[in-house]
Amino acid sequence: MRTFTSLVAGLVATVAAIVSVPLFWVSTNVVDEDGYVAFSSSLATDRELQAAVAAYIADDYVQRGLLPASLQQTAASVLTSVAQGTVDQPGFVRAWEQTQRSLHTSAFGDGSGTLTVSLQPMMQFIAARVGSRLPISLDVTTDIQAPVGTSADRSRLRQVERSQTYALLGLMVVLASAALCLVSARRRTMAVAGLGLGALVTAGVLRVATEIVTPQLIDRAETLNPFARQVQKLLLDRASASLAAWLGWIALVGAVALLAGLLGRGAAALRSR
To answer: What residues does 145 pair with on adjacent strands?
Structure first.
């Protein structure tokens, strides 16, 4: 009976971990504003995104009659060049962080409708460094709200706001089940090995799920323009890589526990001879 109880507790711990790890990642890197800004900071150095931002700004200026259509390509090229040349400056990082905070506010604030991001902080930083490279000055007093998702995307994000609560509940289940697995086991070393195997299974299942789900989310993402699709693609790619790093540590801990348990069992068997 004790062996059966230990086995069931170990299985429960594994299943709870499979559910809880993604929830913890979402809570840390999506729902929490500071966590999201830190997570998305690496996007600022992506050259494709810089070009997409510059192209969107240039198009917006043309649509509002602030820039002649004949200068659109030139403006996009100049803005891209300036953005890529100033990416290492502290002001660029601050402007990017302000942009990402606006996106987080749009996603989790009280607003409704299209999911947008304010490009004004980036525009102010870049425009101040354009200088005489354009024959006209760029007006940066008007905010540029770029759509990066639909109202359906906003609704889906709202559904994960309670992820921290669910993640904490899942962690409690994991810890309680793991403790029961150890306490009720006839051979503690085998219980440790079993929990290590469970950690490896957790990492493996979530890694496979990530590899399957991420491309589907990119393909099915509802976007309003190429800029929005680029933002969503990069965020999903970074999310997959970030979660994979978490899973790597879980797999490492699991491998150590599995090895320690098996070595402990082997040592116990030798002593009993």
So the answer is: 118
